[in-house]
Amino acid sequence: MTEFAGRTAVVSGGGSGMGRELVRQLVAEACNVAMCDVSPTGLAETQKLCEAAGLPQGLRVTTHVADVADRTQVERFRDEVADRHQTGKIHLLFNNAGISGGGSMVTNSRDEWERTFNICWGGVYNCTRAFLPMLQNAEEGHIVNTSSINGFWASVGGRASRIPPIRPRNSRSRGSPRR
């Protein structure tokens, strides 16, 4: 896809950070956008920034409060998009919502890990499942999954320096293996 004008994009996590900038760039290309976030204040700020840049006549930019970790909220978001954009199709789905978290495997709770996993992985699953039929209705459709730099490595956490390294049971040396 090289032309965004007149297309419809769905962006999760549009209330701040990369999602906000993505929405702004899509709107600058005359793409209709439906964005969701858990922060109504963040969504309002993104909408305000788009409007301040000047919206082309007839362009739709809609905001939707939804937690991507909650399947029911994502399905409501999808239904709102169909209604408010008066369409049964979308061309682009940007699974962008995410949080840093999880923390240390040693000191942080399972709840923190599950919250992070439910948003960062479950959100991609929920949004893709919910919006896939609308993508399939379009003459061309794309799914884009984004991640911050935090998606490139795992965090062991602050106490990790006090944990001794794990050595194989049959290790003969700490250096290179014997031949």
Task: Write the topology of this structure.
Blueprint: E1 8-12, H1 17-28, E2 32-37, H2 40-53, E3 61-65, H3 71-84, E4 92-95, H4 110-120, H5 122-137, E5 142-145
Helix pairs in contact: 1-2, 3-5
Which key features would you list for this structure?
alpha/beta; globular; single chain; Rossmann fold; 5 strands; 179 residues
Please provide a written account of the structure:
- This protein is of the alpha/beta class and 179 residues long.
- It has one domain: NAD(P)-binding Rossmann-like Domain (Rossmann fold), CATH 3.40.50.720.
- The chain has five helices and five strands.
- Strands 3-2-1-4-5 form a five-stranded parallel sheet, with helices on both faces.
- β1, α1 and β2 form a beta-alpha-beta unit.
Mean pLDDT across all amino acids:
87
How large is the share of residues in beta strands? 5-15%
User: What is the assigned CATH homologous superfamily?
Assistant: NAD(P)-binding Rossmann-like Domain
Radius of gyration: 21 Å
What is the count of structural domains?
Answer: 1
Element-by-element helix/strand order: EHEHEHEHHE
Structural class: alpha/beta
* Top-tier CATH class: Alpha Beta
Helix run count:
5
For the biggest β-sheet, the strand order reads 3-2-1-4-5
Number of distinct beta strands: 5
- CATH level 3 topology: Rossmann fold
Low-confidence stretches: 159-163
Share of helical residues: 25-40%
Largest sheet: 5 strands, parallel
Distance between the termini: 55 Å
Q: Which shape, going by the Cα principal axes? A: globular
